[in-house]
Amino acid sequence: MRSRLSINRLVVIGVGLIGGSFAAALKRARAVRHVVGVGRTRRNLDAALRLGIIDEAQRDPARAIRDADFVLVATPVGQTPAVLAGIGPHLPRYAVVTDAGSTKRDVIACARRFLGDHFPRFVPAHPVAGTEKSGVTAALAGLFRNRFVILTPQRETAPGAVALVRRAWETCGARVVRLEAQEHDAIFAAVSHLPHVVAFALVNALARRPGAQRLFGFSAGGLRDTVRIAGSSPEMWADICLANRDVLLPVLEDYEDELEQVRSAIESGDAAALRRMFEQARSAREKWLVKKRD
Predict the structure, then answer these.
(1) pLDDT per residue over 84-112, tens digit each?
(2) Other Cβ atoms closer than 10 A to 11
(3) What range defines the domain where residue 138 resides?
(4) Per-residue pLDDT at 5
């Protein structure tokens, strides 16, 4: 029988939506004794303390992790190199380190470079969960329930470290699966990174039109549903797009080709082509998205 998860000292570097929700979920499950939060702003750390999500606040990651059993790096991926370089020399021998980045190949490369002999105790991870809100005040203890968490361990990764990270996410209510890092980045370029780029671009295109305030004032559910994710963190998504650019750019080109076909059909008045493209899209949505949600 599997023993109950017990983490003595959890350090969360980046106490935002994901890091805060992870700590809150483990606290609710009574799976962690002491949570140290590390962040850039005193205001966010004070909020985390006030909400009971962390027990101690630190501004210096290297100092925070010296007695850690488990370290979660939940910063935007652009900050990962500096974080790993800063904590690498100070990690306790027994500490397990994981991350929550939406890209994996770049994070793994940084971990190899900066964690040295500690690399086998690093488990790359990506919780496929979130909202358009950010900061610790958006954290939810139930955020990961029945959501996927992707692990992309390497050949050197210690099985015990993988098992501990898996159990931590399962304790949060997540469904844990494993993928190769290359496959992970290709999948999420298409199903996550591209939709965010499209949402940001659509809002910008409309905002630049004459009378934009009046235009948005008449918007209804269609626009709001389409651009909800444009409320996400600009810093985080800029980092993700650049980190995954080699696979995101071809996906973006495919989308541009599809838009050009729609434009061409509208321009030529080809109703049959439009109906065909729209019907294909509706059928694919019902097959792959509606049934999955149900």
Answers:
(1) 999 999 999 999 999 999 999 999 999 99
(2) 29
(3) 7-179
(4) 92
Q: How many domains does the chain divide into?
A: 2
What mean pLDDT comes out for the span 5-14?
96
Last residue of a domain, one of 132, 161, 179: 179
Place of tokens 């626009």: 223
Q: Is residue 139 part of a domain?
A: yes
Q: What CATH number did the domain enclosing 191 receive?
A: 1.10.3660.10
Closest CA to 293 of 91, 154, 146, 186: 146
Strands 148-151 and 125-127: antiparallel
Q: Which conformational region is residue 167 in: left (phi greater than 0), alpha (psi within -120 to 50 degrees), or beta? A: alpha
Residue 180: which of 211, 150, 221, 159 has the closest Cα? 150
pLDDT, residue 220, reads 84
* H helix runs in 17-88, sequence order: 17-28, 42-50, 61-64, 80-87
The dihedrals phi and psi of 32, each to the nearest 5 degrees, come to -140, 140
> Rounded mean pLDDT of the chain?
94
Q: Which of 152, 179, 206 is the last residue of a domain?
A: 179
pTM of the shown model? 0.91
Is 169 found in the same domain as 63?
Answer: yes
Nearest-angstrom CA–CA distance, 134 and 202: 21
Same domain membership, residue 68 and residue 44: yes
Cross-strand bridge partners of residue 12: 37, 72
